[in-house]
Amino acid sequence: MTVPSAARTPPDAPWDLSFLRVGALVTALAAAVGAPVAGLLAGWAGAVGVLLGAVIVTAFFAMSSSAVAFAGRIGDTLTLPAALLAFFVKALLLFAILQALPADGWVDRRALAWAVVVGALVWSGVQLRWVWTRPLYYVTPPPAPAPRAHPDGPREGG
Fold first, then answer.
1. What pLDDT score was predicted for residue 38?
2. What is the DSSP track for 42-56?
3. Contact status, residue 51 vs residue 36, Cβ threshold 8 Å
4. What is the Cα–Cα distance from 64 to 71, expressed in whole angstroms?
5. How far apart, in whole angstroms, are the C-alpha atoms of residue 69 and residue 142?
6. How many other C-beta atoms can be found within 10 angstroms of the C-beta atom of residue 120?
7. 62-83 pLDDT, tens per residue?
8. Contact, 74 vs 66, CB < 8 A?
9. Averaged pLDDT, 34-56
């Protein structure tokens, strides 16, 4: 199957995933604060829940961002279907993970759920800041103009 030429993107399209590093760092910092707090409030199971929630959110955002960037390199019109498919797969995976955990086991499911919610908000904030601080072009920008020589030749002095 070929992608119509209108949907193609130049191979040097700026699908930058540099925010994944920042998001993982911010999530790790949030987990470093949240895990001891959850440990004090809910014991070891709470601390493990926070750490597992941070890992889940980081993996899910990396997965969906990579899927959207991959689809965007093929064609811009594929990014929405890729995002929706990634969201559906993540929802199924999260449901399966939560169902697999025992109600009274080695992970506090409430702490895990709160960590997922807080982590998703943190990642959303990282992505919003990343988008707001980057120049995004709706069309491919034209190349920079070539420097022009002065019509009278090079000038010396003042």
1. 92
2. H-HHHHHHHHHHHHH
3. no
4. 11
5. 23
6. 16
7. 999 999 999 988 888 999 999 9
8. no
9. 93
Coil vs helix vs strand at 75: strand
What mean pLDDT is predicted for residues 83-105?
89
- CB-side neighbour CA atoms (13 Å) of 31: 24
Amino acid at 99: Q
- The mean per-residue pLDDT over the stretch 28-41 comes to 93
Other beta carbons within 10 Å of 112:
24
Give the H or E element holding residue 91.
helix 79-100
Please say whether the dihedral angle defined by the alpha carbons of residues 131, 137, 141 and 145, taken in this order, is positive or negative.
negative
Q: How far is 34 from 155, CA to CA, in rounded Å?
A: 65
Q: For residue 117, which of 93, 94, 101, 89 has the smallest C-alpha distance? A: 94
Residue that has been written with the tokens 């409430």 in this structure = 110
Report the C-alpha gap between 25 and 19 in whole angstroms. Answer: 10
Residue 92 CA to residue 90 CA, distance in Å, equals 5
pTM: 0.72
